[in-house]
Amino acid sequence: MKIENISIDKIIPYINNAKQHPDWQIKQIMGSIKEFGFNDPIAIDKDNVIIEGHGRLQAGLKLGLKEVPIIRLEHLTETQKKAYILAHNKLTMNTGFDEELLKLELESLEDIDWDVLGFNEEYFKIEDTTGSSGTVVTEKYRHEKERTGNMFNSFIVPPFSMLDGRAGYWWDRKKELLDMIGDFGQARADAKSYEAEHIYKSKTGGVSLLDPVLAEVILKWFAPNNAKVIDPFAGDTVFGYMAGFKGYEFTGIELRQEQTDFNNTKTKDFKNVNYICDDALNINKHIDDNSIDLLFSCPPYFNLEKYSDDPRDASNQDDISRFYNIIAEAFGKAIKKIKNNRFAVIVISDVRDEKGFYYNIPNFFIDVFIKNGMHLYNNIKLLTPLGTAPIRANNAMRNRKVVNIHQDVLVFYKGNISSNIKDDFKILAYSEKELYASKSRSLEQEQMDNID
Question: Could you give the number of structural domains in the chain?
């Protein structure tokens, strides 16, 4: 095949070209031509109609080129030309990259801007998701925010039954919020973990902390405007801080004085946030019935992590029945504090007994809330960082145990008519126009590996 230069004005785009070329891709092709030259000739037929190279033509026009290199594919029949146009655009999309080799190659290009190659800094994310364990987990994502479009503006994260706490966008937000809150488990340094595989680790010490992005999501999705929020098993500062940060009134009941003092110090700038040192069973002393807009709690997962030696502490119970008694009584009282047509959200995970069988703790919580007049409305799973899960899986599978890498986020509703929700809560959905734009962007990004 002979390469020749012809006037760019003589080239005719194929009228039925199905391949999309969004502006961001044309800019990438322009950058490539500037950096490396026009090294991939446009293929045309005997009538100068493009067979492959529409993106290069658009880039050349925007760059003001007078001539471009071409090759003529005059041996193809009309049917073959149509088939080849589709094949050329599709075949390069059918495989991805060896991510490790790709990253090594990109990092070796010291003087080349990755954007010229069609990549950017968001293509790879490397996060230390395991705190003190030292294991580095690579989190890879490619334009995840754009793929879900306006979902991030409207919902913070996509409102699906599976929340991906391992995604790059989640980790970016999480780091930002943790740095803002400044609670890295300082007041829980003496906590003892009995089954580390279930505990969500903070970034500085292996102490379990509530995920701040999850807290932000729960408040956005399930708290009405000017809400009064309560947590009868408050624990760390995260949820109270996020409630205050978002402008809500929050009361947390925490058994340990050290934790209570720490939380109040961290949230002192929020006038409507208050932590009370008391037993969750004494909630009637502090909160009136039918006065709360959102009940949230991430209570102890039985004795999975022991927070104190106080015999009243739910995490300090040797027998599951005693733990269940505390939970049933505490939440039975707490549910009475919730107004009608309001939500309660419980974050919980199951625990194995000494024989290796699950207690089925999430179902116990479901039974408690249903018996006290609430309905299970959403059952969400939060995927948590893998951490040492791949290592522990090797031993666990000897007994055919799968490693737990999720938490249950149980959402309950107090009220018999769920249609009232749209009247009591702010509408979060985005418009049909935004939805169309989101779909269009998704189609564009699915083709980002094929710069034609």
Answer: 2
Annotate 401-431 with DSSP letters as a single string: PPPP-EEEEEEEEESS-GGGHHHHS---PPP
d(C-alpha 1, C-alpha 145), whole Å = 43
Most confident among 173-177, 257-261, 309-313 (mean pLDDT): 257-261
Paired tokens of 127 = 């996060």
The amino acid at 229? V
Residue 49 pairs in a beta bridge with 12
**Extended strands (E) in 255-405:** 273-277, 292-297, 305-306, 338-348, 375-383
Q: Between residues 304 and 396, which one has the greater pLDDT?
A: 396
Q: Quick one: tokens of 430?
A: 């985005």
The answer to whether residues 219 and 134 belong to one domain is: yes
Of residues 425 and 442, more confidence is placed in 425
Indicate whether 152 and 218 sit together in one domain: yes
Query: For residues 281 and 186, which has the higher predicted lDDT (pLDDT)?
Result: 281
Residue 120 — pLDDT band, cuts 50, 70, 90? low
CATH of the domain at 13: 3.90.1530.10
Query: Is 131 in the same domain as 19?
Result: no
- CA distances to 2, 139, 205, 222, 429 from 151, in Å: 50, 21, 33, 16, 8
CA distance to 36, 48, 198, 435, per residue, from 8 (Å): 19, 10, 63, 37
Cα(397)–Cα(387) distance, rounded to whole angstroms? 17
How confident is the model over 402-428, as pLDDT tens digits? 998 999 999 999 998 888 888 888 877
123/4 Cα distance (integer angstroms)? 37
